[in-house]
Structure formats: C-alpha cells, structure tokens
C-alpha cells in the first residue's frame, strides 16, 4: 500500500521579495475525506515550526470559496492576519491564472473576489493581479479594555527600556482586542532607537480583561509613529514577540493597532488608512496595510487587511 502524502507550498507574506523579507507561511492541501485528525494537523504545524500553518480544504466548497484551518505550533486559531493574506494571494492568483472564469471580477476594476470559510466566520477576499495585493474583510470585534497594563510590567520584561523610551511615560499601556483571543498590549515608544532596544522576552503578561474575553496572557506590540504619508496615511514601525520568538509580521496586531489609532484620532463615519512596517530588526521586512472604517457612534465598523505574497517552495509530506 502506498504512503498517503499531502502537497504543500510555502509563501513569504507581506512582501514580493522571496527569501529576504516577509513572514513565511506553509499552506497544506487537505483533500476531501483525507484521514487526518486535529492532533495530526497540530503535529504538522509544529513540524514546520513557523508562526502559523494553513490547511486548505480542496476542492473549493463552491467556485471561489475555500475552507481554511489556521494552526500555530501549539493551538488552532479562528483567524490570523498573515495566513489570510498569504493564502488569499496564493489561491486567487492561481485560480485566475488557470480558470479565472470561475471567480467574480469587480465591475469596472481588476479585482478578483473570493471567500474563505474560517472558524471566525466568512472572510471576503480580493486580489488585484496588476499589483499583487490581496485584501481581506477581517472578522472583528474591536475592543479597548478598561484595564491598562502598569508600566512596571513592561520594565520587568524589557530591562533595556526605561520611562525615557516611552512616548507617554505617565500612563499605563492600552490593552486592545481585534477578536476574542487576539489581544495585544500596545506600547508606543519614543524613537526607532528605543524600538531597537526591545529584547526577546520570555512569557507574556497576564492581563485583566473585561468580562467575556478569553486568553489573558498577552504579548506587547511595540510601535513607533513615523511621519504621515502625503495622502494622510498613518505610518508605523512595529515589533512583536510571541512564544520566545520574534514575529516578522502580525496582521491581527496591526489591525488592533489601526483600530485603536482610528478610534483615537479618526472622524466618525470616515476611514483611516494605516501602513505598518514590521520585521526590519530581524531582517524580514514586511509591509502591512490596514483600513479601518468608523461608524457614526465612533466604534469600529469594518477592518480590511491588505498585503502581498510570493511563492517560495513546494513539496510533499507524509500523513502518518
């Protein structure tokens, strides 16, 4: 009896330059009725040893509609940013090149549309073949928690930082969720030099989250504000460490930050455009785009994440 194998590809996400930039992402094809358990998916993700692995169910549930599962090395996520964008670029580009008539093209534009079915719900995706950018309507429940992280918690984890390295050393740090389970402590630093002082930290901070929100052990998301773009785009440099390693790009954290900035500085009923550059210090520069639409009540009405990706390698892995 021949050994059952699964095909996979890897892509570098939030870049168009392979090997030297971007956040690597494995995408594993999961054929219908494949004899695989959740435990086996977890083991495969752990074997890749990257921040997330996507399992792409085939064939599509409908033309232009794919079910995806997202695993870190230790648990399944209902949603994550760079897996969504990387897989969106891969499947929409591939389908457009081979059978574009199966997808929906925006009237009057080049964008090709599709849908992901995830544990967090439906995610509408689009891809522009002319610039290689994918865009995803992110499932969100943007929330700013009442509890703010005391500064001693930060300095206990980051011994090379002191109050002079913070933009505002007089207040605790905001704790912000984009969805339940995806919460970040936002730490605005005063300069790129301060950002370079951030060290690999061991363990997250236990936050006091509002009632009904889970997974209180959360990481810091360090950011420095850059000058705004000519078009009013708000620009930031960021860093994040998760599970004792630095993450080249964290789309969910970028969405949480963009929502916080929009709610703090935007106008009701209007959109705020944010560009985040992450991964520079580790030699994996990533460019992340986020658009946040505010409702008339000042809350977050919609979040769209965008970015590019480039194919890197492909192969087969044994199922057992």
From TrEMBL:
Signal peptide: none annotated. Pfam families: PhzC-PhzF. This is Diaminopimelate epimerase-like protein. The active site is at 52. GO terms for cellular component: cytoplasm. PANTHER family: ANTISENSE-ENHANCING SEQUENCE 1 (PTHR13774:SF32), PHENAZINE BIOSYNTHESIS PROTEIN (PTHR13774). SUPFAM superfamilies: Diaminopimelate epimerase-like (SSF54506). The lineage of its organism: Eukaryota, Fungi, Dikarya, Ascomycota, Pezizomycotina. GO terms for molecular function: isomerase activity. InterPro entries: Phenazine_PhzF-like. It comes from Pseudovirgaria hyperparasitica.
